[in-house]
């Protein structure tokens, strides 16, 4: 990618062209513009990659470049039996988890039987303890028999309480298992939906990268889709010039498919990160007029207006030496100038000489 910064100084060319670093020249006063050149291409707004979300063989990929697709359309499918099997297993596990919460669950039935037995035993032990207590009040029977009856009733009650708590605990564990399994079902169903390649946003297919029968992996691009209703120019700007680019600056664009026409645009976005692939910074331009042709990927050349100045004092750049020194006729020592806008051809002089000075070629 080659970038050039250059200036337009329309009326001064005759004076400078006659010099060629061999003759005396005089500065001129002229309006100038500073432009940053950048190449790029036409892109459509909201272009995105439609990717595979799971591994498998691509099926039903019956689409072509140029097809318009609506949001929610199933563009293709991926043959992945694993996702289907996992969903079926999760559903069967959920059915078991649901059953474990009912009275028909084997563990619950066993606990219910134990609880009923414990309740019967507690009632019997309680009656026996009350009988021994009445006998004891009548001073009948021994103290040991009375105490054993009381102890048996207390143990039976404790056993009944433990079984009832155990039942609650089993039900709670079953509920947790149900929640977990239900989540697994939902996750499996979500993953299974990845078997279908669904269009997330309406647009037009501009690239088809996979076809029916291809084995695709998760993350691989199937197609590229964009919205052709909004066309923008994407520029690659050199890192040496990106600091001059600002939002809203005017851009003059020439399409490779229509080099007779210059389109006007505005810088609308400057991406904040360096693009490793193109080794440049990416800037987007919004057109201020309708394009005759807006084919996606059309190559283009652009000039961004980054500065302009009225009545600038210009001298040929080849007359400026190291340290901004110029040779002025009638002066023994070189004069140091203060420069403004620089280009490959001209220098905007801010201080150091006047329009009446005559410049001499640099010494070889």
Automatic annotation (TrEMBL):
Gene source species: Fluviicola taffensis (strain DSM 16823 / NCIMB 13979 / RW262)
Multidrug resistance protein MdtA-like barrel-sandwich hybrid domain location: 49-225
One Gene Ontology MF term: efflux transmembrane transporter activity
Entry GO terms, CC: efflux pump complex
Coiled coil: 108-166
Transmembrane segments: none
Protein name: Biotin/lipoyl attachment domain-containing protein
Lineage: Bacteria, Pseudomonadati, Bacteroidota, Flavobacteriia, Flavobacteriales
Domain of life: Bacteria
Keywords per UniProt: Coiled coil
